[in-house]
Specification:
Blueprint (H helix, E strand, L loop, with lengths): L2 H20 L4 E2 L4 E2 L2 E7 L10 H12 L5 E6 L1 H10 L3 H8 L7 E6 L3 E4 L13 E11 L8 E10 L2 H17 L1 H7 L3 E2 L10 E2 L1 H20 L3 E2 L5 E3 H7 L1 H5 L5 E3 L6 E4 L4 H8 L11 E10 L15 E11 L4 H18 L5 E7 L10 H17 L4 E5 L8 E7 L5 E10 L1 H5 L4 E2 L5 E2 L2 E10 H12 L12 E5 L5 H12 L2 E2 L6 E2 L2 E4 L5 H10 L4 E5 L1 H6 L1 E5 L4 E5 L3 H6 L2
Parallel strand pairs: 11-15, 17-18, 24-27, 24-28
Antiparallel strand pairs: 1-3, 2-3, 3-8, 4-5, 5-6, 7-8, 9-10, 12-14, 13-14, 15-16, 16-23, 17-19, 19-20, 20-23, 21-22, 25-26, 28-29, 29-30
Helix pairs in contact: 1-2, 3-4, 6-14, 7-11, 11-12
């Protein structure tokens, strides 16, 4: 644990001490250091705590910190530890202690003579070293993440070494709130949720559907250029498919089950597509001459996520993947990965997220992985070499692999510096074995193919949550649901507007998607021009065409973009828009 983590961990103890002084009858869960700060899970009993209570708790914390109390470690045995927890009526600590071995050496930390907590540490020496902090919010959290257990109150804080770093972080958080995709999704009329439909099941409006289909089609077009062919698979399947693939044993509790009322068969809503694509490959004999075989599909999958983990489009129960699978020989892996890396780079450059890092996700020594360890080692070596050959900035992460093979996860940075895991390339030697996939090689012998999984956007819903926040809703011209809005100054320009519309109707955009017809609307309401401009700006329309009598007379168009205004001849309008 580095010094900053020690500071944050110590602050969680200071938080608990402050709460105990203000609310003496509370019971404490756990209080770890986390990215950017700390939290503590606390049972307040019948007392209700909200964000409005945070200033009072924070003030108490600062008074404790000012006392420069030491953090002192002491060791205890299990019996003494249980007696302490019982004497202090700390039922959650009792549960944690009871799970430890009988001969365990248990550590406690004393915050001066003010507060004692069961803790492994480490911490800073005293409270004068905790740095800059702020309590930011209150949330609910099930004890030990179990929905069947007690709901505790989680108090979050952020902490940094200096006030400057804290202020910078808080500014970024304010910017993040303004960009929140749930807020913008409502304001820009992109998607909604309905209690009657269910949590985690987003509904996309016409504007949102335009955006998601443009992004999916762009992803498919990039892969189509590399020889991928579209396939289609049903949304339910016999559970035998996932039992054979190994997914049922690993993710069976995430399956939505479907029971046939006709013959009593049990089916599952598909949570992923790779086993289906494997069945298409297996549907007829294959030879080395047709390898590699490349399939792609943009299709919705379903996963029974816990209600408490759902959030806007970031985590949903119905997720649409721009999924693709390559079946190839071991000698073809290098070239196939190279093509896929190129696709990822091109797409994220187009959407303005060019600072890509690659996480090489390897297996750990746990038993959760399937397949021969030697194959894993070979595959891990291959994805590392692929990262080197493709000049990727990469880092290695043990234990982050899929259960069937290592992978390259692409981390993209958004406009306010946050990093998101989006695209992925995964090698799989397990499913070809479990499904007994084969092709006839050049020697006339049967051979197992390698399976490469790839998603460029990943979950389209999750990608959109990132993309909306990255752009702040100001989408690039090519993928904006509404690219152009025409605003009239008065009714006298209706004939000239018809001429403008004639130009717009004959524009076909080819970058980055071919046959992308221009999307425009006309606002010729009787409202003032100021109100029309306000409406268009609130909807973040990238191009506003303002048409007044003088424009009609001179055969020009007044163009208002987000960052500038200019006038263009009507005869040049098509060229102008095609170059945006």
């Amino acid at each position: 644990m580095n010094e900053l983590e020690k500071m944050r961990h110590t602050l969680s103890h200071v938080l608990a001490a402050a709460v105990q002084e203000l609310y003496p009858d509370v019971a404490f869960g756990i209080g770890p250091a986390i990215d950017n700060g700390f939290y503590y899970d606390i049972d307040f009993g019948t007392t209700k705590i909200s964000d409005t209570d945070l200033p009072k708790i924070e003030k108490k914390m600062r008074s404790i910190i000012a006392r420069k109390l030491e953090m002192k470690k002491r060791l205890s045995n299990k019996t003494e530890s249980l007696n302490w927890a019982r004497d202090h009526k700390q039922k959650y600590k009792i549960e944690l202690i009871e799970e430890l071995p009988e001969d365990a050496e248990i550590s406690f930390y004393d915050l001066g003579d003010l507060f004692t907590d069961l803790c492994k540490g480490p911490h800073v020496k005293n409270t004068s070293e905790v740095g800059a902090f702020k309590l930011i919010r209150v949330a609910g959290a099930y004890w030990r993440g179990d929905e069947k257990r007690e709901m505790l109150t989680r108090i979050y804080g952020v902490a940094f070494e200096t006030e400057e770093e804290l202020e910078e972080y808080l500014k970024r958080q304010e910017e993040a709130k303004a960009r929140d995709h749930r807020k913008l999704g409502k304001e820009l009329d992109l998607f909604c949720f309905s209690d009657l439909v269910g949590a985690g099941l987003p509904l996309f409006t016409p504007r949102g559907t335009e955006l998601r289909e443009l992004m999916a089609n762009y992803s498919l077009s990039l892969r189509g250029r590399e020889g991928f062919k579209k396939v289609w698979t049903p949304h339910i399947t016999k559970t035998d498919l996932y039992k054979t693939s190994g997914h049922y044993a690993k993710f069976g509790d995430e399956l939505f089950m479907v029971h046939s009322q006709v013959n009593g068969e049990d089916f599952a809503m598909k949570p992923m597509n790779c086993p289906h694509h494997a069945q298409i490959f297996a549907s007829k004999p294959r030879t080395y001459r047709e390898m590699p075989v490349r399939y792609m599909e943009a299709t919705t999958d379903y996963r029974d996520e816990k209600t408490g983990e759902l959030g806007g489009l970031s985590r949903v129960r119905s997720l649409t993947q721009d999924d693709s699978h390559v079946f190839c020989t071991t000698n073809q892996i290098k070239d196939e990965v190279k093509h896929l890396v190129g696709i990822v780079k091109e797409l994220y450059e187009t959407v303005g997220m060019q600072n890509l890092r690659a996480r090489l996700s390897y297996r750990s020594d746990e038993d959760k992985y399937l397949g021969d360890k030697k194959l894993w080692e070979m595959a891990q070596g291959q994805i590392k070499q692929a990262a080197i050959d493709n000049h990727l900035e990469y880092f290695e992460a043990e234990g982050e692999a899929a259960f069937y093979g290592p992978k390259i996860d692409f981390m993209a940075e958004d406009a306010i510096g946050r990093e998101h895991q989006l695209a992925t390339i995964q090698l799989d030697f397990v499913q070809p074995e479990r499904f007994e996939l084969e092709f006839v090689n050049s020697k006339g012998e049967k051979e197992r193919p390698v399976m490469i999984h790839h998603a460029t956007l990943g979950s389209i819903e999750r990608f959109l949550s990132v993309f909306i926040e990255h752009t702040g809703g100001w989408f690039p011209f090519w993928c904006a649901p509404e690219q152009v809005r025409i605003l009239t100054v008065n009714d006298s320009v209706s004939d000239y507007v018809a001429d403008i519309i004639d130009v717009l109707d004959n524009i076909v955009l080819e970058k980055p998607l071919k046959y992308n017809e221009l999307r425009y609307t006309l606002d010729n309401a009787s409202d003032s021009l100021g109100k029309k401009i306000k409406r268009a700006t609130e909807m973040k329309i990238p191009v506003i065409l303002i048409v007044g009598p003088k424009d009609a007379e001179e055969k020009i168009v007044s163009i208002r973009l987000r960052d500038k205004e200019e006038k263009v001849k009507l005869s040049d309008l098509k060229k102008y828009l095609c170059e945006l």
